[in-house]
Structures are given as structure tokens and as C-alpha cells.
Amino acid sequence: MGNHNTKKKNQILRTKLPERLCHWMIVFCFFLAATSGLSWFFPTFSWLSSFLGTPQMARVLHPFFGIIVFLGLCYMFVKFVHYNMPAETDKIWFRNVKGVLLNDHSQPLKIGKYNAGQKVLFWLIMISISVLLISGLIMWRAYFAQYFPIPVLRLAILAHSIAGIGLILLILGHIYLAIWVRGSITGMVTGYVSKAWARQHHDRWAEELDAKESAERAALDRQGEKA
Ligand code: HEM
Question: Is 137 near ligand 1, meaning CB less than 6 Å away?
């Protein structure tokens, strides 16, 4: 008995299906937008446009993949912003960041659903994608570029390049950390993490979930008594 039950018992839903699908759809489109974008920086990078077929196709499709990434991130913003608001307890994480990097989990850091580092990353991603969208629309030859004077276009291209490289570097860091914190990618794929994982990496979140579960159980017990 119980193997399946025990597994379920020790698992917590961390990310719901629509959010997971959205995240992986973003990953796919971001890969195509980022590689085609990089292909225009140096001739030695030009082969990177081949993921979209020909260089011409890459030029046509890049903005559309970028817009899909933006829309996906809008959805994630709405769903996740609540967990990424600054909290008083984030200071504890910042103060102990060295311990976090050394994988030292001896002290309770009062980490909510996302840690302070993830929150910073969340906001940097949202700022970069906003800059990319606005500057990208301005410089979009097919539709809008003709409405803007040359100096504005030049500034837009500069802002787009900086935000693009910035976002790519942020995402490389994001991927590195996702691999580093074992169990988190499984969480983004299956939706579930273990209770031990939650306690180790997001102690306050795990405590809040435990408290909610006990309250729900108590309410059910009371209902049972009445019936
Ligand atoms: C192969 C590439 C990627 C991997 C392996 C990956 C992995 C992950 C994982 C494991 C989480 C959940 C973290 C947790 O539960 O604590 C996450 C969250 C997230 N990812 Fe990714 N990711 C990738 C690419 C991207 C890209 C390209 C973007 C956006 C451009 C992105 C944006 C986000 C956001 C916004 C969150 C939510 C974080 C928060 O709310 O603080 N990810 N990712």
C-alpha cells in the first residue's frame, strides 16, 4: 500500500499547469528570438539565424517571437507578481546570501514562495522585456519605423541591443541557478516539489502551506462533528 500515496503526501503543487505551459512556451520562443537577435551582432554569429530557416525568415519572424515572449511574460506577471513583491524578510536572505551560495541551510531564512534573488530577477526580466517591446516596436521596419526620426531609431536600436544582451545574460544565470537548485526544474516540469525541498529552499512558504493545511483539516473535522 501507500507508495503512490506517500509520494503524493510528500509532494506540494508549486506551479500550476497553465503557468508551466506558459513558461515553457516562453522558453521556446525566447530561444528563437534570442538566437536570431544575436545573429545580427557579429558575422561570426550569423549561423544562429538558421534556427528560423533563412536569414530573411529570421528577420521577418524575430519580432513575432519577441511579442509572444512579451505576452507570455504578461501572463506570468499577473500570476506571479504577488509572490515577487518585496518583503521585510528579504533582508535576511540578502544578509545570508553567502550561506545560500555555500548551500548552508542551517538557519531559517524566512523565504517565501520565491527568494529575494528570484524576486530581483523577476523584476529585471519584466523591465528588460518592456524596454525590448517598446524599442522593438519603434525600430520595426515593416510597420512603425517610418514614423520616427533617425535619432530616435538609433536610440531605440541601442536600447534594444542593451536590453537584449542583458536579458540573455539574466536568462543564462536563471538557467544556471535552476540547474544548481536540484528539484526546481522537476517542479517546473511536473508542477510538484517535495516537502523537504520546500522546507529547505522556501521555509516560510512551506510553513504557510502547512498552516493552511492544518486549518483546512480542522475545519473539515468541525464539519464532521456537526454532521
Ligand atoms: C532552459 C531555460 C529555462 C529553465 C531551465 C528555467 C527554469 C525555471 C524554473 C525551474 C523556474 C521555477 C523556479 C522555482 O520554482 O523556484 C522558473 C521560473 C521562472 N522563469 Fe524560467 N527557465 C528557463 C527560461 C526562462 C526564460 C527564457 C524566461 C523569460 C524570458 C523565464 C522566466 C521565468 C519566470 C518569470 C519565472 C518565475 C520566477 C518568479 O516568479 O520569481 N525562464 N524557471
Answer: no
